[in-house]
């Protein structure tokens, strides 16, 4: 089975397993696991922040960040298709009690004017106690539902400046920030400097088995550790899994361009097939999203699965595929052939052409 459902399906390498097996460990809840502490130091330094805290998942780092930035009843600005809003189980409402205010992003990218418009124009005749106060802007780079879209750095800086001028705190969901850096050559630190806090993931692009980190000011990270513990995120001998993340951080970032090349190879290989709607130019990193115009996406991916290819449906007519650490060029070629074989077995009923932006439903991690 060629599994392109998500880069979370990556498997640890032999060298990573060796690093994990030999890790020096302690009790992280008591703050004395040396491998966890080393990982947190390196992440903070890499992102240009004072401190970082290691957690189980990107959902946890994002949601702890929201909770630590806000109080219940506050409002938070999200892109309309943000992972933190669409794909994290309703946690902003359930855990932080915040009100989402949605921005009209295009593939996850919005403008400074969108931020300003969402905040409205205050007037002394209108009581400030009536609307929920907007305290935080969350931005995602690269953008999952946007097909791995990379934020243009000038636009990102403009949006952050606009939000900060209005008194908002800024959080970056950087689960695939590593891919943005690989695609542009712009350092993670350069992206991160525009934000108060940044979350990064080790179990997607970098291929570690477990974990993400939240970085930011030291006082903020101290507050975040409280909420990590509150929702059951306390580790014990976490150095075993932190060693995998640390190995990945040090050794797997340099190879990410290979994933981008495989994604582009896949896109080029299927874009001209009848019944496929895909703009190759939309493939900027390792995520390939395309439309299926000949049958329902759910049935399409079932047929692919029966022939040895695992991908995710996205709404009624969208499909997502993601190459990653363990996927070879040969497997990408085989995936192209399997997709072609399913397409060739179907009558083509064209329901749409051109670029495809997947619907949020079922878009995956």
What is the compact description of this entry?
This protein is of the alpha/beta class and 365 residues long. Helices cover 40% and strands 15% of the residues. The longest helix is centred in the C-terminal third of the chain and has 16 residues, at 329-344.
Tell me what the structure shows.
By secondary structure, this protein is α/β, with parallel strands linked by helices. It is 40% helix and 15% strand. It contains 14 helices and 13 strands. The protein has helices spanning 14-21, 34-47, 58-69, 83-86, 91-96, 112-119, 153-165, 177-184, 188-192, 218-230, 239-251, 256-270, 297-306, 329-344, and strands spanning 2-3, 51-55, 75-79, 99-103, 134-140, 169-174, 197-201, 212-216, 276-277, 288-292, 309-310, 312-314, 318-321. The strands form three sheets. It has a seven-stranded mixed beta sheet, with helices on both faces. Strand 5 (134-140), helix 7 (153-165) and strand 6 (169-174) form a beta-alpha-beta unit. Helix 3 (58-69) crosses helix 10 (218-230). The longest helix is centred in the C-terminal third of the chain and has 16 residues, at 329-344. Residues 3-289 form the Aromatic amino acid beta-eliminating lyase/threonine aldolase domain. This is Aminotransferase class I/II-fold pyridoxal phosphate-dependent enzyme. GO terms for molecular function: L-allo-threonine aldolase activity; transaminase activity.
């Amino acid at each position: 089975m060629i599994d392109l459902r998500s880069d979370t399906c990556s498997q640890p390498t032999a060298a990573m397993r060796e690093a994990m097996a030999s890790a020096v460990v302690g009790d992280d809840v008591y703050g004395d696991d040396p491998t966890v502490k080393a990982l947190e130091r390196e992440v903070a330094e890499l992102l240009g922040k004072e401190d970082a805290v290691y957690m189980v998942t990107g959902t946890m780092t994002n949601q702890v960040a929201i909770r630590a930035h806000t109080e219940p009843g506050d409002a938070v600005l999200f892109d309309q298709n943000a992972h933190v809003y669409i794909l994290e189980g309703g946690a902003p409402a359930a855990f932080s009690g915040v009100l989402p205010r949605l921005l009209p992003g295009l593939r996850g990218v919005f403008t400074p004017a969108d931020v300003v418009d969402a905040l409205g124009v205050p007037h002394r005749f209108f009581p400030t106690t009536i609307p929920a106060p907007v305290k935080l802007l969350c931005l995602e780079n690269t953008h999952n539902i946007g097909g791995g879209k990379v934020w243009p750095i000038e636009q990102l800086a403009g949006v952050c400046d606009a939000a900060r001028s209005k008194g908002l705190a800024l959080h970056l969901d950087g689960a695939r920030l590593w891919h943005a850096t690989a695609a542009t050559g712009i350092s993670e630190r350069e992206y991160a400097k525009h934000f108060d806090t940044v979350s990064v993931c080790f179990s997607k692009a970098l291929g570690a088995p477990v974990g993400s980190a939240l970085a930011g000011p030291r006082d903020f990270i101290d507050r975040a550790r409280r909420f990590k513990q509150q929702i059951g995120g306390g580790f014990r001998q976490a150095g075993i899994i932190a060693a995998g993340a640390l190995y990945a951080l040090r050794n797997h970032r340099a190879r990410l361009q290979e994933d981008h090349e495989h994604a582009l190879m896949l896109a080029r290989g299927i874009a001209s097939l009848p019944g496929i709607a895909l703009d190759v130019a939309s493939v900027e990193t390792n995520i390939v999203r395309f439309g299926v115009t000949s049958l329902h996406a759910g049935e399409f991916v079932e047929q692919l699965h029966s022939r040895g290819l695992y991908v995710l449906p996205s709404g009624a007519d969208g499909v997502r595929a993601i190459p990653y650490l363990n996927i070879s060029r040969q497997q990408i070629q085989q995936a192209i052939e399997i997709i072609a074989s399913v397409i060739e077995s179907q009558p083509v009923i064209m329901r749409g052409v051109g670029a495809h932006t997947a619907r949020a439903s079922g878009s995956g991690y």
